[in-house]
Backbone:
């Protein structure tokens, strides 16, 4: 900080301090809010290096980025319907460091969002028909932003049919129409809303609902006639991204089960299947794992043998032509998909470890069994570190190519999934029952430290992602990965912290909630996640009030009081974390929100 400036604090309440109240004051004494030179330089250089935060020893292996990304969420280029929300979030959520203001700000933000009228001026999308120009844009968005994480559809074959359907005598018209509808459905959240205004006058969520309904109807007309075909497996995979969290029964889990049913019937699940069949089967595995792990529905994990991992040679046909994205992009997205397959394998191994329980309290076994658990955890932790190094190397190579920002967002999304994998590995230890065993206490503390670290990394990756991303670049796969980090940041805000720590925690929380709010504007299911966050906010707030009532401030001022108070705070924190896990489990797995 420059010697010509001094720091000015406007402290109306010591427990409630806005980051904007910490101002740089020139010598004339007039407060002005501005970033320090160090902050500006840090803002320019801080990119996705956050992904490698847990492995500081490997930082030197990463290539320095020469990319200067444009500021994310530029208000001048946001969808007009939601541009007002970001200033709301900035003013409301960042306007308080104290936990006592978070729920009030969150409620007000929801009220403002409800009053925005996202669908004002739009007509219902029944009988939706897209123009050829809009379809072209949607297909382009699909292959650029959705396809890298779920490359089930053969790009070359699909585009060949799309450009001249009457010439493709091998493709069944109805089956290809279903696949087209599924592609349009998957792509809709990834286009600018303005593109819809000139056509059937629909908002993104309306249009997606209408296209899903059309695809669903056509699917059920074709599902038995074309049982086991790649087209049905591909379509069901794409439709598995429908998660409205309402009374609808045919949602994410149903559709991925349908995709697996067709993949098995069509020989795609065979251990030695190759090329497109192998890719489709692994897309089924990844999607099943994303849903089952993300929503804490571990009993829904597919148990059929996964077979060999996909290889670069399996993608040879797709890489034969440069359609929509460059051959370089296809190559690094192929590699990142293979890494994603490996990551989900580690995650499945994590939740299938013996002697542990994710859904209720459990006791650490004695002697050899406890040693076996810790040894297995150590091995999986090491695998995640090695995976992180390989991922960081790939990302460094991609940065050197100066790729589009949307490509970098995809890497951020997978980086978030990596942090979720770390959290999933250690999460069961937070449910360990009270025990006099020093080993159990050690393991529980270690698990909480690991998960807190993963939560900080999640916030850092999210902050970096917001520098690159437009709202249309984000994916519905994100919310389950950030809900526990949101909860842990709320818990940390409820504890005694100095100004600097509270400011940092609040900013990190703001990035996570901003991402969640952005998703709410484009995906039906995000609203349900926000209800779970509301329940968590109330839980943490009530726990904080209860803790304050049980402690005497005068006695806590003594040395003995501080020691006992710290121990009490720790016990209360563990208890709150356990209740938070139950709230998340009930909300995501059982769709029951505790009030």
Residues:
């Amino acid at each position: 900080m420059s010697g010509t400036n001094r720091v000015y604090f406007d402290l109306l309440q010591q427990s409630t301090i806005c980051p904007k109240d910490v101002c740089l004051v020139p010598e004339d004494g007039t407060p002005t809010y501005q970033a320090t030179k160090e902050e500006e330089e840090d803002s320019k250089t801080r990119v996705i290096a956050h992904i490698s935060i847990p492995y500081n020893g490997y930082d030197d292996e990463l290539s320095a980025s020469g990319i200067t990304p444009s500021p994310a969420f530029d208000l001048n280029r946001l969808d007009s319907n939601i541009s007002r929300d970001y200033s709301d979030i900035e003013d409301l959520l960042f306007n308080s460091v104290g936990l006592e203001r978070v729920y009030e700000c969150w409620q007000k933000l929801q009220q403002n969002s409800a009053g925005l009228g996202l669908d004002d001026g739009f007509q219902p999308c029944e009988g939706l028909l897209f123009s050829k120009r809009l379809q072209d844009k949607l297909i382009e968005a699909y292959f650029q932003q959705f396809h890298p994480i779920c490359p089930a559809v053969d790009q070359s074959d699909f585009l060949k049919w799309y450009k001249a359907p009457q010439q493709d005598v091998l493709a069944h018209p109805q089956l290809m129409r279903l696949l087209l509808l599924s592609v349009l459905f998957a792509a809709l959240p990834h286009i600018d809303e303005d593109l819809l205004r000139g056509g059937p006058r629909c908002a993104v969520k309306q249009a997606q609902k209408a296209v899903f309904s059309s695809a669903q109807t056509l699917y059920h007309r074709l599902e038995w006639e074309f049982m086991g075909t790649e087209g049905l497996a591909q379509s069901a995979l794409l439709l598995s991204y429908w998660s409205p969290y309402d009374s609808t029964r045919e949602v994410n889990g149903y559709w991925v089960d349908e995709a697996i049913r067709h993949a098995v019937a069509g020989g795609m699940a065979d251990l030695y299947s190759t090329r497109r069949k192998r890719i489709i089967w692994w897309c089924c595995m990844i999607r099943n794992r994303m849903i089952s792990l993300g929503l804490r529905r571990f009993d829904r994990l597919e148990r059929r043998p996964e077979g060999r991992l996909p290889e670069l040679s399996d993608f040879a046909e797709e890489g034969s032509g440069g359609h929509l994205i460059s051959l370089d992009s296809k190559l690094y997205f192929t590699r990142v998909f293979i890494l994603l397959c490996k990551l989900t394998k580690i995650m499945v191994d994590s939740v299938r470890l013996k002697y542990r329980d994710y859904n209720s309290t459990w006791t650490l076994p004695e002697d050899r069994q406890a040693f076996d658990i810790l040894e297995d955890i150590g091995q999986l932790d090491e695998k995640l570190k090695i995976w992180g190094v390989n991922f960081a190397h790939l990302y460094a190579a991609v940065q050197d190519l100066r790729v589009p920002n949307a490509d970098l967002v995809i890497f951020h999304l997978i980086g978030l999934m990596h942090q979720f994998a770390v959290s999933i590995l250690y999460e069961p230890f937070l449910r360990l029952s009270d025990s006099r065993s020093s080993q159990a206490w050690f393991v529980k503390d270690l698990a909480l430290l690991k998960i807190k670290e993963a939560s900080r990394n999640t916030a850092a990756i999210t902050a970096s992602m917001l520098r690159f991303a437009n709202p249309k670049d984000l994916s519905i796969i994100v919310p389950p990965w950030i809900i526990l980090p949101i909860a842990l940041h709320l818990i940390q805000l409820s504890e005694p912290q100095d100004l600097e720590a509270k400011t940092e925690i609040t900013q990190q929380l703001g990035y996570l909630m901003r991402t969640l709010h952005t998703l709410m504007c484009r995906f039906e299911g995000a609203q349900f996640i926000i209800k779970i966050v509301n329940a968590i906010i109330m839980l943490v707030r009530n726990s904080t009030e209860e803790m304050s009532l049980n402690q005497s401030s005068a006695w806590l001022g003594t040395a003995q009081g501080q020691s006992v108070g710290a121990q009490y705070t720790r016990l209360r924190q563990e208890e709150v974390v356990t209740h938070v896990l139950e709230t998340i489990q009930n909300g995501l797995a059982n769709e029951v929100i505790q009030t």
The first strand starts at residue 6 and ends at 9. Residues 127-325 form one domain. Residues 1-87, 89-97, 114-127, 561-565 have pLDDT under 50 and may be disordered.
